[in-house]
Structures are given as structure tokens and as C-alpha cells.
Please model this.
Amino acid sequence: MKGVIAKLIEWAEQTLPGRCLRRFLAINGTTLALVVAAQAFTAFIPLLIVVASLNPAGNSDGVGRRVVERFHLTGDAASAVQTLFARPPGAEGALTVLGVVLLVVSGLSLSRALQRAYEAAWGLPRSVRGTLNGVVALTILLTQIVLLALLAGLLRGVPAGSVATFVIRIGLTVFVWVVLQHMLLAGRISWRLLLPGALLAAVGQQGLSLLSALWMPHVIEQNAQRYGVIGVTFALLSWLTAVGVLLVGAAVVSAEMGLTRQRQLARQTADLGAAEEAPAEEATGKAMAGPGPVEQADPADRFPPGPP
Model:
């Protein structure tokens, strides 16, 4: 029985999920995911400050109202969300400037955390250029999320709009994830090796979006009833933790699939080179051996006997 279990464990470790899990544990993926979630949370608060400060004076509850409508919140949960995201009375330009500064600093920290996760997954050393690219990659990711939200709203009433939205979402998300990985890794990995991981990351992002629409309303309502306004931040932190796990998991899967593909290509190249060298070595061996022995003619053949 133990032998069967050992063989099953050995077989599971050789599968793609098993290899990904082993790589995730080797790079301390849980710690990296929590770091990414914490950095995302510290970046999210300044982002809310900036957005709330930029709202018109008569629209101070714009962010809170959008969150309430997005997750269909009612009662205490809706009140807590609107209170948390409401624009402070008398907010001036100084608050916006402070929020922008905090947003830039926290955004840099988040991009460095993402860079460390991807470099650890691929086994690459740290790169300063990757940190600078990470800021641009983070901006692209946020822009993609905003564009997808606007697209979903525009196509909501169009016939077959949900199908068109899904197709456009997948295509745009795959493209963004390829660019994002390439920039975080400072261009040290081929685009072709990043594509499989980008496909899975795109599917994972859409799955998380669907799960958030089903799971987050319940979590926000439950936490708001128990803890009030602070309960909304607890729910937000839980959601960002799931996002962190998705980001690090996407890095691990992308690295495992990309490195496996790289080894396969290297093996195919080596086999092709060996197949091409074999006939050349055979021909070289024959040339070095020289011509074979010359068959001597029989003297009787050169001088046939005379007439009897």
C-alpha cells in the first residue's frame, strides 16, 4: 500500500500542477502573495483619496455609490461603504497632492513586489530596469481594468453583448499579461515563452472577477454588520489577498510552463544537431581511413597462354 501511495505521489509531482506547487513552495509563494496584497492595500487607500478628492463637490459619494451598485449592497453594508468612500468635508487641493504623492510611493512599492515575485518564479536576479518597467506595467494593468469595466457597461444592452464582452476581455487580457510579464522581467524572457502563462493568467483574472461578483457582496455585508465601516476594509483586504495569490500563482505557472517549453526546444535543437553531425562524422571517418586495398591483377590474365 505504501508503495502505491509513493508512486502516486511521485506521479503527481511530475504533473504540471505538482511542478507548479513545488515551485510555489520553493519561492515562498504565500509570503510573496501576502506582500503583494499588503502593498496593493497601501496603494488602494491613496487611490481612493485621489479619486474622492477629484469628485465634484456635489458628488462626494461617487466612489461609494459605484461600489454599492457594483456589488448590489443594501442596508448597513451600503451605508458603511458610502461612509468609507465619502469625500471628506472641505477637502482641498492639498489633500489631492498628498494623495498623489502617497499613490506614487505605494505604486513603486507594489511594482517592486510584483517584480520580485516574477523574478523569483523565473529564477532571475533583480533588475533595476525591471523596477522602472514595473511602474508602467502596473499602470497598464489598472488601465486595462478600467477599460474592461467601461466596455462591460457599454455592451450590456447590446444583443449577444455578453459573448462579445467575454471574447474582447480574453483577448485584451492576454495581450496585457504578455506585456506586463515582459516588462516586469525586463525583457529577459522571450515573448513566445510568456504566452502560455498569459493565457492562464487571463482566464484566472476573469474567474476571479466572476467569483468577486458572487462572493464579495456576502463578505462585505457580513463584515459591515459585525464591525461597521472597518469591516469593509477587512473584506477589501481579503479580496486583495486573493488577488495577490492570483498574481504570484500566475507568475509560477508562467515560469514553469515557459521553462518546460525552453527545455523542450533545447532538447529538440540538440537532437537535430546530433542527427546532422552523424553523417558528417561518418564521412570524415571514411576520408581519414584512406582508400581501400587495390585488388592485384593475376599475371595469367595479363599474359594469356599461346596457341597449343
Notes: The mean pLDDT is 76. Residues 11-273 form one domain.
